[in-house]
Amino acid sequence: xxxxxxxxxxxxxxxxxxxxxxxxxxxxxxxxxxxxxxxxxxxxxxxxxxxxxxxxxxxxxxxxxxxxxxxxx
Amino acid sequence: xxxxxxxxxxxxxxxxxxxxxxxxxxxxxxxxxxxxxxxxxxxxxxxxxxxxxxxxxxxxxxxxxxxxxxxxxxxxxxxxxxxxxxxxxxxxxxxxxxxxxxxxxxxxxxxxxxxxxxxxxxxxxxxxxxxxxxxxxxxxxxxxxxxxxxxxxxxxxxxxxxxxxxxxxxxxxxxxxxxxxxxxxxxxxxxxxxxxxxxxxxxxxxxxxxxxxxxxxxxxxxxxxxxxxxxxxxxxxxxxxxxx
Lengths: 73, 244
Known about the structure:
Shape of chain B: globular
Structural class of chain B: mainly alpha
Helix content of chain A: 40-55%
Structural class of chain A: mainly alpha
Number of helices of chain A: 3
Radius of gyration of chain A: 22 Å
Distance between the termini of chain A: 63 Å
Oligomer: heterodimer
Strand content of chain A: under 5%
Shape of chain A: elongated
C-alpha cells in the first residue's frame, strides 16, 4: 500500500471554512420561497385555500397528500 | 457555492423522492385503497351517490403520487441544502457527509416526526370536510412551532455546552427540546375525526407506511446529498485548488 504526498489527516479534522452569510442570503431567500410554493401546491392547494378553481390539483396529488401527512378533504 | 449546494439539494431531494415513491407505492397504496373501499361502502349504505372521479385512481396512485413526492422532495431538499450551507463550518469539525446525515435526522424529527405525533397522517375516509381549514392551520402551526423548538434547543444547548461541557450542555438541550415539545403539543387543539367503525389495522398500517415513506425520503436525502456537497466543498477531491 502506498501513500501519496497529501496529508494523511482527513479534511474533516480541520474546521472547514463557513460560507459567508452575505453570499448565502440571496440563495436562502430564493430557495425558501421556491420550496414554500412547491409545498403549498402539494399540501394545501384546493384544500383549505385555492388559487386554481376546481379540484384537479387536489385530486391529482391526492394520494401523495394523504401519505405525506397533510390534512386532506 | 450556496447556489450550487441549493441545486444539489433539490436534485438529491428528487432522487430521494423516487425511492420514497416506490416505498409508498408498495406499502401505502394498498391501505389507501382499503380506506377508499371503506368510504365507498359507507356512502353507499347512507344512500349517497358515489363521488365523481375527476382523476382516475390509477393516475392518482402512479403519476399523481410520484408528482407529489417529487415536489415535496425537491422542496425539502432545497430547505435542507440551505440549512446545510448555513451549518457547514459553523457547527464544528464534521465532514460534509456526516453533517448531511445528521441534518437529515434533525429534519425528519423537526418536519415529520414531532408534527406527526400530534397530527398523524390520515387515510381517505378519516377527516371531516368542514374542518379542513382548522386542520390545515393547526398542522402548519405545529410544523412552525416544531422548527422553533428545535432551533431554540440547539442554540441554548450550544451555549450551555460552552459553559458546562459537552455532556451536560447536550443533555440540557435535549431536555429543553422534550419539555418545549410537550408544551407545544399540549397547547394545540386535539383533533380526532376517525370514524368509530374504521378498521384500526388499516389506520395503523397506513400511518406506518406514511412514516416509513418519510424515513426513506429523509434517509436517502442525507445519504445522497453528502457526497454531492463534498464534491463542491472540498475542491481538492475534484482536483481543483482554490484559496480560502
